[in-house]
Design a protein that fits this description.
251 residues; mainly beta; Jelly Rolls; 2 domains; 6-stranded antiparallel sheet; 5-stranded antiparallel sheet; 15 strands; 39% strand; globular
């Protein structure tokens, strides 16, 4: 009985190895994820790591223990709630921009960046100029020539000039802000429309300074066309800002 006990103790001792004798191979993981990385915790568990599930940068320190650094990207297979829809990653998921709860920054259109423009009567046209300070962009447009005074109130589709602006809003908008300049009360208004529908006229004051005039107009998300028609010659338009707030930019 005593000899049997001693034999069993010896057998048990032969199965025990010192921590310093652990093979460096037990700490390695190849780039293809095919090798086993030993858990260095007291539980002495070993887990098989597959590079299709977990991607890690491994650096073997001098004692053979892996130092894990950089980002650890967990693949779909390890997510507790299943894969991302359609294989999308979280940083590519986009909100529903058509929702009224989604807000966007103002859309700025420089007046000199029209899509098309034309003279309606062969006399007047929108002309790009930059002779008044403090404009934005590369200039502004002015209904020219400036004299004699002309008012195209009733016949705006055949008198004066027209400029069109194609644009698109990612989320619903509610206001359009026009930045204008006028010399007097005979050059401080334009006619305007959205998507081919005349919306009326917009005027502004004070004179001899750049100022915003704001109109209320609900726009659905998507493409639109804004049209400016000359009402009074010598009116100057610097920019058009489309937003979801009644406050003009910079106010």
């Amino acid at each position: 009985m005593r000899l049997t006990s001693l034999w069993l103790v010896g057998l048990w001792a032969g199965c025990v190895f010192d921590r310093s004798g652990v093979s460096a191979a037990s700490h390695k993981a190849t780039s293809d994820g095919g090798e086993t990385v030993a858990d260095l915790s007291s539980k002495a568990e070993a887990r098989r790591l597959d590079s299709t599930d977990v991607h890690r940068d491994l650096d073997l320190s001098t004692d053979g223990a892996p130092d894990m650094y950089a980002d650890i990207q967990i693949a779909d297979a390890l997510r507790p709630d299943g894969p991302w829809p359609d294989g999308a990653q979280p940083d590519t998921l986009q909100p529903d921009l058509s929702s009224p709860d989604v807000k966007q920054g103002p859309l700025v259109i420089e007046a000199e960046s029209y899509t098309t423009k034309k003279s309606l009567d062969g006399t007047y046209s929108w002309v790009v100029q930059s002779d008044i300070a403090n404009y934005s962009g590369s200039g502004f447009i002015v209904a020219s020539p400036g004299t004699p005074d002309m008012n195209c109130q009733a016949n705006y589709t055949t008198c004066g000039a027209q400029a069109d602006y194609d644009f698109s809003v990612a989320a619903p908008a509610t206001h359009i802000h026009f930045r204008f300049y006028s010399e007097d009360g005979d050059s401080n208004s334009v006619q305007w429309g959205i998507d081919g529908v005349h919306q009326g006229q917009v005027g502004w004051s004070p004179h001899l300074t750049w100022t915003f005039a704001t109109t209320v107009k609900s726009l659905a998300a998507g493409p639109h066309k804004l049209t400016l028609w000359m009402r009074e010659n010598n009116a100057r338009v610097d920019r058009i800002v489309i937003s979801d707030t009644a406050t003009p930019p910079g106010s």
